[in-house]
Amino acid sequence: MDTLILGLPVAYYIAMIAKVLVAFVFVLLTVAYATYAERKIIGHMQVRLGPMRTGWHGLLQPIADGLKLFFKEEIIPAQSSKFAFLVAPLVALIPAFISFAVIPFGETITIGGYQIPLQIAAVYDPAGDRVLDVNVGVLYILGMASLGVYGIVLAGWSSNSKYSLLGGLRSSAQMVSYELAAGLAIVSVFMLSESLSLQKIVADQAGFAWYAFKQPVAFIVFFICSLAEINRTPFDLPEAETELVSGFCTEYSSMKYAMFFMAEYANMVTVCAVTTTLFLGGWHGPAFLPGWIWFIIKVYFLIFVCMWIRATYPRYRYDQLMRLGWKFFLPLTLLNVVATGIVVTLLK
Amino acid sequence: MIMPLLKGLGITLSHLFKKPVTLQYPDEMPEVAPRFRGLHALNISHDKAKCVACYLCPTVCPAKCIKVEAGEDENHNKYAAEYEIDMLRCIFCGYCVEACPVDAVRMTQTFELANYKRADFVFTKDRLLEKK
Ligand code: SF4
Ligand code: SF4
Fold it and tell me: CA B53 to CA B61: how far, in whole Å?
């Protein structure tokens, strides 16, 4: 087992693949059942039952939905820009999943003498007894989040339909403006952590020293802006059914539509995971449960909050949304950054 | 600004724990009102339909969906040789019931009237006669 590939032991690669598989399957399942949970939770919040007839209490609903979408007719508009039209769903879906590569979802575990950190893009360094991970993890996540916008813009533009185009335009404007506030909210976190490595950020929050307590404003602003960035209600303007048919995915059908749908939910899972990592102490929690269970509990709680918000608030109007982003959240986060800077300097 | 938002969240959360009002329809049947206006039935007395083919119901029917044809029975009494209601046109207003001088037609609580063929929506006399 001591053979080295590119300077790393073979076990590293095996562990890596195992982690990728576990995380991917986990996220996929969460995405599938998030759709079910959303319908159930919103149903009960509206004093309805939600899906009940596919399997016990509708538990097979995501599978039935998937099968249905799979057998739907594939329609590509004749006047569309074919290549962009086909690529757009992938561009939307892939960044949603690969953000998970840098999120630490548990403590370092020991299997057969090997220390394996539960974070995909990380390796245990026995010499220094520390975990080496991507030292620009936060930046990577922000980058992936902005890549996701391209999928929607491409979809809107290539469909050659005015509804899609308007939906795509709206979402690009929305995502770009909220990215700014979300980014600034993160800035105040790594002013405290002094690192962009997620491993370090999580380690700093051990023992309930959560950044959500130290930076409550940043926490709330980041969560709200993330909701806006991933087009969740109350900021789901790109898909405003009442005015834009289905927004950027109006012309999409079958599996390509399913991909947008999955991307939306995968984005939600990712955003919840990132929020957990940055503000809610990542996988840290009371010791009676292993770290990854705490991580899952926190992420699921945030997903529940997303759905709860969806069941409660009506959609923002476009100008209100822009006003909220540029005139309220952006100054607020800037102020927060300045205040954090002053406090950090004074405490030193 | 914040308080109303939180209040809204509180309301939705409290609804989460309420008993849903959904009726699982094919498994659970709704209880319809006693005076519900559903499918018609022709009342029977002395083993015969009470209808005397007076034509009041086809006259009053706003949807013009009742077809009555009079006949003469062995006692030289007028009776409805044919009586048809086209359920695709009926608006379930109940005027026919009100108009009938001999209380020959009434409305039942049956509301599951879906069918596969248009012809099956035309209810003839035998289908309308009240089931004993
Ligand atoms: S219920 Fe109204 S519409 Fe229907 S048959 Fe009677 S009178 Fe005509
Ligand atoms: S009003 Fe009554 S008696 Fe007259 S035709 Fe109609 S059902 Fe028969």
Answer: 14
Task: Read off the DSSP letter of residue B129.
Answer: B
Task: Indicate the top mutation candidate among B89, B90, B111 to test ligand 1's pocket, ranked by most ligand atoms within 8 A of CB.
Answer: B90
Distance between CA B92 and CA B95 in Å, rounded?
A: 8
Q: Is B12 within 8 Å of A44 when comparing Cβ atoms?
A: no
- The DSSP symbol for B85 reads E
Q: What's the gap between Cα A202 and its chain centre? A: 17
pLDDT averaged per 10 residues, chain A (length 348) = 68 80 87 88 88 84 86 82 84 84 79 73 70 78 83 83 81 81 85 81 79 84 85 72 70 82 86 87 79 86 89 82 86 90 86
Give the 3-state secondary structure of residue B108.
coil
Name A261's Cβ contacts closer than 8 Å, sequence gap at least 6: A35, A69
Q: Which residues does A contribute to its contact with B (CB < 8 Å)?
A: 41, 43-49, 52, 308-309, 311-313
Give B32-130's CATH code, choosing from 3.90.1170.50, 3.60.20.40, 3.20.20.80, 3.30.70.3270: 3.30.70.3270
* CB-side neighbour CA atoms (13 Å) of A252: 30
Cross-strand pairs, B86: B122
Q: Is B24 within 8 Å of chain A by CB?
A: yes
Provide the token pair at A259: 């991909």
Residue B83 CB neighbour total at 10 angstroms: 26
As a whole number of angstroms, the distance between CA A152 and CA A61 comes to 26
Interface predicted TM-score (ipTM): 0.70
Ramachandran assignment for A152, one of left (phi > 0), alpha (psi -120 to 50 degrees), beta (any other):
alpha
Q: Is B3 on the interface with A (CB under 8 A)?
A: no
Rounded distance between C-alpha atoms, residue A228 and residue A173, angstroms: 11
* Structure confidence at residue B64 as a pLDDT band (50, 70, 90): very high
**Are the beta carbons of B15 and A47 separated by less than 8 Å?**
yes
pLDDT at A11: 73
Q: What is the pLDDT of residues B78-123, one digit of tens each?
A: 899 999 999 999 999 999 999 999 999 999 888 888 989 999 999 9
Confidence of residue B132 (pLDDT cuts 50, 70, 90): low
pLDDT attached to residue A244? 66
Answer whether B105's CB lies under 8 Å from B52's CB.
no
The Cα angle at residue A295 between residues A292 and A300, in degrees rounded to 5: 125
pLDDT of res. A266: 87
Q: Which residues line ligand 2 (CB under 6 A)?
A: B 51-57, 68, 80, 99-100, 102, 104-105
